[in-house]
Amino acid sequence: IKKYNKKWDFFSNMSADEVEEFIENDIIGHRKTKKMGAHSNKYFENASKISEAIFSSFKGFDKSTINPSLISSKYLNALAVIGIENKDVTLEEVKSKFKKIVKELHPDTVGKNKKNIEKLTKVLEAYKTLKEYHDNFKYSDTV
């Protein structure tokens, strides 16, 4: 068997061009392939249609479509920390109230009082929550 295997030559009946073609096809495992861009690919067309359908459902989404009961408790707690009772407050109103509270509690203006620092920390977190809420819903004039 060893003698037979040593004498056997797979390429013996092939021309030089056929051997070159075999070597080139060996790179891709002798599978048929298509040139890039030569044929349309339905996968990308279908994926594009699906994504357009999904995102088109969000067109026209505005504040009026949000159910008031879906406003998060985190948002309502943040309003309470800053001292605002109106859920439909504008971002400008939140900012002005926030600035006023920060001036009252900031260590540079009233000294280092541990209670004030804790309150200031809560106010900063509340403002961050309100700002994120505004940014996520992209309201032009309200939070």
UniProtKB/TrEMBL annotation:
Residues covered by the J domain: 77-143
Chain coiled-coil ranges: none
Name the InterPro entries for this protein: DnaJ_domain, J_dom_sf
Q: What is this protein called?
A: J domain-containing protein
